[in-house]
Specification:
This protein is of the alpha/beta class. It folds into two domains: about 230 residues, Rossmann fold (3-Layer(aba) Sandwich), CATH 3.40.50.300; about 60 residues, Histone, subunit A, CATH 1.10.20. It is about 55% helix and about 10% strand.
C-alpha cells in the first residue's frame, strides 16, 4: 500500500509554499506543486514561483511543464501528477502536495468530473455575450442559477463560467450539484493540512505580495511574454496578476489602476479558495497569526503528525 500524501493548502500568499518546503526539507520529502499557473514556463514573478536556489534544495514537480501558449488542462495535470507521485513513492520519499488550485486538488483526490459533452453552439453564444457585455455579466447570471459555483469560480475565469452555464443549459441542473455526485472513494490516502489567516492579515499579505511582484519586475515579465512569437493561451492571459498588467500594457489601465485591480482580484481569488477548502473532508485546519514563521509552524506539525512522515533517507 502506498504511503499517505500530505496536502499543504491555503489561499494565495498565506505561506503554504514556505511551510511545504520547510517540512519537505526536514523529512527528505519532495513537493508536487498543485498550482494551475506555476505549470507555465517564464511566468515566474506573477505566480510567486520558487527561485532556482530553492528548487535546487527541495525537489519540486509540476513546475515549468508547459509553454504559456498552451492550454494546460486539469486532465493533463492529474496524469502528470500521478506519474510524479508514483516515482517519488517508489524511491521511498514522502510526498507533499502544495498549492492552492482547488479544482486540481479535487480532481487529484477524487478523479475528474466529466459532465455532459460540450455544445459548441452554446459556447460560441456565451462567449459572444461575454465579448459584448463583459465576463462579469455571465458571472452574475451564474450566481443566479448556481450561486455555489459562482462563489468558487473567479469572475475572470471565463472558461469555467462558460462551462458551468453550458452544463446548466444542457441538464437543467447546477454544475455544483452534479459535482457532488463525484465518486466519494478517494484516489489517494491523504492528510489535508489547510492554512488560514484572519482576513485583515491575509489582505495585508496580499497588498505586500503585489508590491513585491511589481518591484521584482512583473510588468517587464508580462511585456516579454507578450513579445514572444506565439501568443499567450487564454488561460495564461486570464491569470490574476497577468490579466491586469496586460490591460495596462494595452493602455487600458494606468499602472496604479492595474496594481489595485491585482489586489482586488487576488482577494476575490482567496475568497473563492476559502469556499472550496471548506468543502473538503478530513481537513486539519492550522490558524496562523502575523508573527508565525514556517519554522515555528513546522515544529508544531512535526509533533502533531509525528507518525505521518518517515525519517529522511540516510
Amino acid at each position: 500500500m502506498t504511503a499517505r500524501l500530505t496536502f499543504i493548502l491555503g489561499c494565495t500568499g498565506c505561506g503554504k509554499g514556505a511551510l511545504g518546503r520547510e517540512l519537505a526539507a526536514r523529512v527528505g520529502g519532495e513537493i508536487i506543486s498543485i498550482d494551475s499557473m506555476k505549470v507555465y514556463r517564464r511566468m515566474n514573478i506573477g505566480t510567486a514561483k520558487p527561485s532556482a536556489e530553492v528548487l535546487a534544495k527541495v525537489p519540486h514537480h509540476l513546475i515549468d511543464v508547459a509553454e504559456p501558449s498552451e492550454e494546460f488542462s486539469v486532465a493533463q495535470y492529474v496524469e502528470r501528477a500521478d506519474a510524479a507521485i508514483a516515482d517519488i513513492q517508489q524511491r521511498g520519499r514522502p510526498v507533499f502536495v502544495v498549492g492552492g488550485t482547488p479544482l486540481y486538488v479535487k480532481s487529484l483526490l477524487d478523479g475528474l468530473f466529466e459532465g455532459p459533452g460540450a455544445d459548441e453552439q452554446i459556447r460560441i453564444r456565451l462567449k459572444a455575450e461575454a465579448e459584448a457585455h463583459g465576463g462579469g455579466a455571465l458571472h452574475e447570471r451564474l450566481a443566479q442559477v448556481d450561486p455555489e459555483a459562482a462563489a468558487r469560480i473567479h469572475p475572470n475565469d471565463l472558461r469555467r463560467i462558460v462551462r458551468a452555464l453550458e452544463v446548466f443549459e444542457l441538464t437543467g441542473t447546477p454544475i455544483s450539484s452534479l459535482q457532488e455526485q463525484w465518486d466519494k472513494q478517494r484516489r489517494y490516502d491523504a492528510q489535508i493540512i489547510t492554512l488560514r489567516r484572519p482576513r485583515e492579515d491575509q489582505n495585508h499579505r496580499t497588498n505586500d505580495r503585489v508590491r513585491r511582484m511589481i518591484d521584482a519586475g512583473l510588468v517587464e515579465e508580462v511585456r516579454a511574454l507578450l513579445a514572444e512569437p506565439v501568443p499567450l493561451s487564454t488561460t495564461a492571459c486570464k491569470a490574476v496578476g497577468y490579466a491586469e498588467i496586460i490591460r495596462h500594457l494595452q493602455d487600458k489601465l494606468s499602472l496604479a489602476e492595474a496594481v489595485e485591480m491585482v489586489k482586488i482580484n487576488t482577494r476575490q481569488l482567496a475568497k473563492s479558495q476559502r469556499t472550496w477548502f471548506k468543502r473538503f473532508e478530513g481537513v486539519a485546519w492550522v490558524d496562523l497569526g502575523p508573527d508565525d514563521t514556517a519554522q515555528g509552524v513546522a515544529d508544531g506539525l512535526m509533533t502533531r503528525f509525528e507518525s505521518l512522515w518517515s525519517p529522511s533517507p540516510k
